[in-house]
Description:
By secondary structure, the chain is an alpha/beta fold. Helix content is 33%, strand content 23%. The chain folds into two domains: 6-124 and 300-320, 3-Layer(aba) Sandwich (Rossmann fold), CATH 3.40.50.720; 126-298 and 329-364, Dihydrodipicolinate Reductase, domain 2 (2-Layer Sandwich), CATH 3.30.360.10. The protein has helices at 15-25, 57-63, 78-87, 102-115, 129-139, 160-164, 172-175, 185-195, 272-278, 301-315, 323-342, 352-364, and strands spanning 6-11, 32-38, 53-54, 68-71, 91-95, 119-122, 146-153, 200-207, 216-224, 230-236, 244-250, 253-258, 261-267, 288-294, 346-347. The strands form two sheets. Strands 14-13-12-11-7-10-9-8-15 form a nine-stranded mixed beta sheet. Helix 1 links the parallel strand 1 (6-11) and strand 2 (32-38). Helix 5 (129-139) runs parallel beside helix 8 and helix 8 (185-195) packs across helix 11 (323-342). The chain binds nicotinamide-adenine-dinucleotide.
Amino acid sequence: MAEKKLKIALVGLGPIGTLHIDNLTGGKVKNAELVAVCDMRKVDNPKIASLPFYEKLEDMLANCDADAVVAATPSFTHFNLAKTCLEAGKHVLVEKPISLCSFDAKRLGEIAKRAGKTCAVMLNQRTTPIYKRIKNLVSSGEIGKVNRVSWNMSNWYRPQIYFDMSSWRGLWKGEAGGVLINQAIHNIDAFAWIFGLPQSLRAWCKFGKYHNIEVEDEVSAFMQYPDDMTATFITSSGEHPGTNRFEISAEKAYLVAENGKLSISKFKGATLREFTLNTLYAFGTPETEESVEEFDGKGGQHAEVMENFADSILNGKKCDFDSAEGALSLTLANAMLLSGIENRDVCFPFDDEAYAKALAEKQANSRLRENVRKDFILDFNKSFR
Ligand SMILES: NC(=O)c1ccc[n+]([C@@H]2O[C@H](COP(=O)([O-])OP(=O)(O)OC[C@H]3O[C@@H](n4cnc5c(N)ncnc54)[C@H](O)[C@@H]3O)[C@@H](O)[C@H]2O)c1
């Protein structure tokens, strides 16, 4: 018997919506089928020519028999759009970020619970094999207690036209942040997924340092964890070539992830602390066993997330990307932004509501861009890092 498929309606047919169309119509999501599409502008795409097309979400919700909606519209629309879908009795998978702040992400969780529906977020980089491997090495205890982490993710370069070609990018009103909320949200998510949230942080955010934008395009953050772990996270959308170097110093091993390779230096015979306290060699260093693991693929990415979403609805499997997971990365990103804006340490548990109010004040003076550049050249595949 053919496997039951989740009927999906897609709203937002821009670059990422087009990738979802390719995945759904190209058989990459085995347990889902595309049954309707919606965009406020007419979209000419032969792959959806036979599907019902709606200009308004409300018309699609009222007229199509989809079980779930995938939302791939600009970030500032996510909260209201997801709320509307949930209250109309549809499950919803929202593109990242799930909303503009963690307060709203948590509210979506409550709305979904009341509606008895699933609200999930497209955090596709959790499927990246190298991140899965690091998570496993940390959470299994294989590398021992983690002492210090450093992630320099500065290769999210974007030129000015990337912002100017849209009404919403790079604006408090449109996405409520820059590199932290749009590009590095994937790394922040992987970071919080692996290590959880810190007890406090301090971040230096530079707003419009490289671009004519309102929001941050460079961030250096320092974090302290309750078990004495310290961490730094650096990101930028203004540097080139930048780097993506993720280092983890732990009691049983030292890890470096860079260029798709994970180098593991395992301490032989004793933990780092045991060696440090007991060796008689004044300039001695611990003996290590070296290995390098190579990861050639990027994993299932967007199709894998969608398959998990469909599986959770059709077969009761755990949804690995629900709204609480979406709130996690936003909490960390919002806390870094707040620290940068107010030039102070931020402690956890994070006051989501206070941040939502601070954000509303920033947004009160922000407007969506009216004169959008049309002379851009789009090479969307180059957007992924
Ligand atoms: N997960 C990823 O890898 C990834 C990659 C790129 C973008 N994104 C996210 O996807 C979202 C969309 O990004 P994009 O680059 O495709 O944006 P975009 O602005 O280029 O395209 C959005 C599309 O949505 C349509 N739209 C806007 N408001 C609408 C509404 N109310 N109803 C119906 N249609 C509407 C627009 O006409 C447009 O076609 C953003 O939130 C972004 O952060 C995720």
